[in-house]
Write a structure and sequence with these properties.
about 210 residues; alpha/beta; Rossmann fold; about 30% helix; six-stranded mixed β-sheet; 6 strands
């Protein structure tokens, strides 16, 4: 028996975005000062955990968050994975008001090569499968983005993987109805069965006063 394997998906901290655009996969969007405080707060929460590895999306905001977590685990390095990158969407650079008008739905009416929710879930689960094979019985941290985490939560709860079904997240223990910046969504596997639905735990971080 390999024991319990857990994968803690951390959403990156708040982003410096004075123009209020949807940054998606655009380069150059790092953490704000508040986002750095959030990242330090989540790092403190994970400080005493025996973490086997830290993965990160290639986006700057995720890498900065992951590096702050890594500072408290000096024996580790940050491993970059495209499998937990931000959604590939045609809306990068659009204004916040345009996305609000769409109710932040990046998917309806969008054609390939852009992603649908199931595409995001499938690539995320490929990383999960890799982690379960490579780090059985350990805890792994993966710093990523809101929809990547949201679709994993829906899947773990047996809910259809659509943009509309994200409305069910509040009932699944997310008080804001969506993964908060620097929140921790942990998926716990008791066996090595590939079809196992993991248990799910959500932790929302209070960054007040964090350094």
């Amino acid at each position: 028996m390999a024991g319990v394997t857990s994968i803690s998906f951390v959403r990156h901290g708040h982003v410096h975005n004075p123009e209020e655009v949807y940054y998606g996969r655009l380069p150059g969007f790092g953490l704000s000062e508040h986002g750095r405080r959030e990242a330090h707060a989540v790092a403190e929460v994970l400080h005493d955990e025996a973490i086997g590895a830290i993965y990160s999306s290639p986006m700057q905001r995720a890498l900065e968050t992951a590096e702050i977590i890594r500072e408290l685990h000096p024996g580790l390095s940050v491993r970059i994975s495209e499998l937990i990158n931000e959604v590939f969407s045609p809306f990068d650079g659009c204004s916040r008001s345009e996305l609000l008008a769409l109710n932040w739905n990046l998917y309806d009416g969008v054609d390939p090569p852009y992603e649908q929710p199931i595409d995001v879930l499938q690539r995320t689960r490929r990383l999960v499968s890799h982690v379960r094979r490579k780090y059985p019985g350990q805890q792994v941290v993966a710093v990523t983005h809101g929809d990547v985490i949201a679709f994993m939560i829906l899947w773990a709860n047996g809910t259809p993987i659509t943009a509309a079904h994200k409305e069910a997240l509040r009932e699944m223990g997310l008080p804001n109805g969506y993964p908060a910046p620097a929140s921790i969504s942990t998926f716990v596997y008791q066996t090595t069965a590939q079809d196992e639905l993991p248990a799910f735990e959500y932790t929302q971080i209070d960054a007040t006063g964090a350094g």
